[in-house]
Design brief:
The complex is a heterotrimer of chains A (360), B (283) and C (289). Chain A has 360 residues and is mainly alpha-helical. Chain A is 70% helix and 2% strand. In chain A, α3 packs parallel to α8. The longest helix of chain A has 27 residues. Classes of the chains: A mainly alpha (360), B alpha/beta (283), C mainly alpha (289).
């Protein structure tokens, strides 16, 4: 282990540089699509199709990083966080569509309302442990989506019902670019928040709760308050993503604001990248989202899967995703950040060791 | 057999060594248990336990397995809710308080089966105690680590500060458990069988550690099975059996009490012992 | 009054399916500490086996139930032995995700084989039932309830009277001690999961008779199985039976609420579950774990 320390440092520097280059490209290339840049004959480095995908990736970075706070750092694996996404989306959506607020005034309320809801629901929910908490939170996630879609008020669906909620299209120039940078800002905020949490007293308390809740309590950690705060923080970040999404998509309903598959995706992203770390969920989000888009055929470069027809393609994609999930859980439980951080090297012996640690 | 210290020193005549201690204890008990009762299902694990601990004492709690010792500690530290009775700490009742509030009031404890924070280093474990402990502990992260280093020095773990917890030996893990609790800057430290599983050399080292901790002004209440420890550092011992206080007083006296012997070793042995003593007495 | 009686009867009959869905789920959870998110997938595999046999060989669907049980047992055994055993000692999050991944694979393979069209199993007697005045007891539902109770009884028998059943009980009580007395954990674990899957398969066969199935039709049952087990209490087959019947009743009465009663089905199920977890975590009949 000690012998690999120097090579670890070297690898870490390599990855940092490569990561930095990729991040810089991702952030600056879209600017080349601006009319001003085009007329100045700057070569187009990214076309608009990429914005949409990149915005989705940024959105998932926010969600996965948010989940990481309650699931990875605190150890309470919530399975229904998409509820907060939807709550954020509908909060902003309702303020804009019904109360006619401007977008930037409505947006801050998305994380606030989501956090309040999480605090309310979290008080009873966080008393449960393990499986019970996971499934109860899943239940809440499903139930909230159903309620929002079906609640009526005075005979009319309160939140737009089955036909959804339409937001007035804003008059923003360069929409794609605008929302891309907005979502990236949200992603940056969530990563910064995670970084701060992990170095703060709050974060140490959360980790203590994760490692041994009873010991944490007798050492003076107010476990209830801390858990609820972590849950609310995760909800706030997830709600922020939802709020941005609502205006970006101009249309929200139960299917796109409370998609059940987002629950597992954000967990898988955090897991794939590395739970409990600062950049792990972000890395996982990028990798998984690219993979999902690739398998779904929505990336400009698609590769046909041999023996599979076009119609069967999305189904096979899901099978591959499922197998990937199984593989990651079995062989790479600490996430790929383990390799980037330099603690381990991807090798057969690493895989075999992971296997031995958890199998019968 | 000694009785529980009387709350009215003037009512107790005599100048025996025991009553001197009685006067100290009577000044103002730091910890007071009154009729503490805790039930699980129909069984009373702790049944009407009453005794006092004075500031700066080292008191031992002994008794056969299942006597309710750990349950009692759990009651004091707030892990269990009382079913009856009261616990008073520095004058105020703490019954029903959440564990973290009791910790903030200055009562620290260790667990019989150690509970380290597995993914953290030794230093970080100790720092958690410093970050969240009683009012005298540090709050800032930097200050907490400084305090952690001091405490690790006290228990003899400085050299292993940056090691992961998983790399520690059992005696070292117990040291860490104590260090973490001490880092909360407690006024009272509850130790639950710290010596279990240690060999003689390790016990001596652990004894030194407990003495060092006590010397900083911390009151110590410890559960032990190793009698050498009880006799070695405790001024007073409380014997529990079936959830009730069987006897209390100086360790040597209490250990010779027939009822205590009966509780530990059974009725037949106690009878034999009584017979031997009577024989020795008539000679 | 007759309406009330009808509701109670419908509730109990519906409860039969919930009992079948719940006992297998509860077994795997109680013994292996695995909340099997692929349970719904396994259930619907059983449904498709029944449908296939019914359509191709015109077998009475109730006769296909044993086939469901055996086929799913084999599948479950293989899954546990080959895949799930690899992460059994990992934190719960991993088993959750693993079974979720397995579920994805199972459902999509079904989609590839059978497509997404709805299929139904309609034996000749499907619309008929016993009539007592204005109260109707459908034959299919009644026999389903009977089959479900029979299944629970068989499971209880296996667990309490056979060698492997006692081994499973031992593991549930103390895994390490069970190993020390010579129980082959890998095999016993696989048998447990196989039994759970077999029950799921039977449940699927029953479900195919009462509703049209499609590969994703099993999904709601996973979560409902969870509620059933919590409601009844984790640990004993009889507790799950009570939980299943109770859940059937709750659903029957919940759906009869005028207005949007049926739409809030999921919300009611989970509200009930959270209520139970917070107020009486050991369920109606269980002992605190």
């Amino acid at each position: 282990m000690i012998a690999t320390l120097d090579s670890n440092r070297r690898w870490r520097r390599v990855f940092l540089i490569v990561g930095g280059i990729i991040a810089a490209y991702a952030l600056l290339a879209p600017l080349t699509s601006l009319d001003a840049a085009v007329s100045a004959n700057v070569p187009l480095l990214a076309d608009r199709l990429w914005f949409r995908i990149a915005t989705y990736i940024a959105m998932f970075i926010v969600m996965a990083t948010g989940w990481n706070i309650i699931g990875g750092i605190t150890g309470y694996a919530a399975f229904g966080n998409v509820a907060f996404f939807g709550i954020g989306a509908y909060t902003t959506g309702m303020l804009i569509a019904k109360a006619k607020w401007p977008f930037l005034a409505a947006l801050p309320f998305a994380p606030v309302v989501a956090a309040l809801f999480a605090a309310l629901v979290g008080l009873p929910l966080l008393r449960l442990r393990g499986h019970y908490f996971a499934v109860a939170s899943l239940g809440v996630g499903v139930a909230v989506g159903e309620l929002v879609q079906n609640i009526d008020y005075g005979g009319q669906p309160l939140f737009g019902g089955a036909s959804g909620l339409f937001l007035p299209i804003d008059s923003i120039a360069n929409r794609g670019l605008y929302f891309f940078y907005l979502m990236v800002a949200a992603a940056a905020i969530s990563i910064a928040v995670t970084w701060w949490v992990l170095r703060s007293r709050f974060g140490y308390g959360l980790i203590a709760i994760r490692e041994n809740e009873e010991a944490a309590a007798v050492l003076g950690v107010n476990t209830t308050a801390y858990k609820v705060a972590a849950f609310a923080l995760a909800a706030a970040l997830t709600g922020l993503a939802g709020g941005i999404f609502s205006q970006w998509n101009v249309f929200i309903n139960q299917d796109n604001a409370f998609p059940i598959e987002y629950n597992v995706q954000m967990i898988l992203m955090a897991l794939l990248g590395g739970t409990g770390t600062v950049f792990g969920p972000a890395v996982g989000a990028v990798l998984l989202q690219l993979l999902i888009q690739f398998l779904g055929g929505s990336l400009p470069m698609t590769v046909g899967i041999p023996f599979v027809s076009e119609a069967a393609r999305p189904i096979v994609a899901q099978v591959i995703l499922g197998l990937l999930l199984v593989g990651v859980v079995i062989f790479v439980p600490r996430g790929v950040i383990d390799f980037f951080g330099g603690r381990s090297r991807l090798s057969l012996s690493y895989l075999r060791r992971s296997l031995r640690e958890t199998s019968l | 057999m000694s009785e529980a210290p009387s709350p009215h020193p003037r009512a107790t005549p005599g100048t025996s060594p025991a009553s001197a201690e009685v006067k100290i204890a009577a000044a103002a008990p730091q910890l007071e248990l009154r009729g503490v009762t805790k039930r699980f299902g129909g069984v009373a694990a702790v049944d009407g336990v009453s005794f006092e601990v004075a500031k700066g004492e080292i008191v031992g709690i002994i008794g056969p397995n299942g006597a309710g010792k750990t349950t009692l500690l759990n009651c004091i530290s707030g892990v269990h809710r009382l079913d009856g009775g009261d616990i008073r700490w520095e004058g105020a009742s703490i019954a029903g308080m959440a564990p973290h509030r009791i910790a903030k009031l200055g009562i620290g404890r260790t667990f019989q089966i150690v509970r380290p924070f597995g993914s953290m280093t030794v230093r970080e474990n100790a720092a958690i105690g410093a970050l969240f402990g009683s009012a005298e502990a540090r709050r800032g992260v930097k200050g907490a680590f400084e305090l952690a280093d001091e405490v690790l020095e006290l228990v003899g773990l400085s050299a292993k500060g940056r090691h992961p917890v998983s790399a520690l030996t059992i005696p070292d893990r117990k040291r860490l458990e104590v260090a973490r609790a001490v880092a909360t800057r407690p006024h009272l430290l509850l130790l639950d069988e710290v010596m279990a599983g240690l060999n003689n050399v390790e016990i001596d080292e652990a004894l030194e550690m407990v003495r060092a901790v006590h010397a900083t002004g911390v009151t110590v209440l410890l559960i032990e099975h190793v009698m050498r420890v009880i006799v070695g550092i405790c001024r007073r011992a409380v014997v529990l059996d079936f959830g009730q206080v069987l006897a209390q007083g100086e360790p040597e006296v209490v250990l010779r009490d027939e009822r205590v012997i009966q509780a530990y070793l059974g009725e037949r042995y106690a009878k034999r012992l009584r017979a031997e003593r009577e024989q020795a007495g008539t000679h | 009054m007759a309406n009330f009686v009808q509701l109670v009867i419908l509730g109990l009959l519906a409860g039969g399916v919930y009992v079948a869905v719940g006992v297998g789920f509860g077994l795997v959870w109680g013994v292996l500490n695995i909340v099997n998110l692929a349970h719904g997938g396994l259930v619907i595999v059983g449904g498709y086996i029944t449908w296939q046999l019914f359509t191709a060989l015109h077998l009475d669907p109730f006769l296909t139930l044993p086939v469901d049980a055996v086929a799913l047992f084999v599948l479950g055994y293989a899954l546990q032995r080959g895949v799930i055993n690899r992460i059994i000692r990992a934190p719960l999050l991993f088993t959750f995700l693993l079974t979720f991944g397995l579920n994805l694979v199972i459902i999509n393979i079904l989609l590839l084989i059978f497509g997404s069209d709805f299929r139904s199993v309609t034996p000749t007697y499907s619309g008929q039932g016993l009539e007592f005045g204005s109260v109707v007891i459908p034959y299919v539902a009644l026999t389903s309830l009977g089959a479900a109770l029979l299944l629970a009884a068989a499971l209880a028998f296996i667990l309490n009277r056979t060698r492997i059943g006692l081994a499973i009980n031992a593991i549930a009580a103390d895994r390490d001690a069970a190993q020390l007395v010579g129980i082959d954990l890998r095999h016993a674990y696989a048998v447990t999961f196989g039994l759970g899957a077999a029950c799921a398969g039977v449940a699927g066969g029953l479900i195919a008779m009462i509703q049209a199935i499609t590969p994703t039709a099993g999904e709601p049952y996973t979560l409902q199985a969870f509620v059933v087990v919590i409601l009844g209490g984790l640990g004993r087959v009889s507790a799950t039976v009570v939980g299943g019947l109770a859940f059937g009743l709750v659903e029957a009465f919940g759906q009869s609420i005028p207005g949007s009663g049926s739409v809030f089905a999921n919300a009611i199920a989970f509200g009930l579950m959270v209520l139970v977890l917070v107020t009486r975590p050991q369920g109606l009949m269980g002992r605190l774990r």
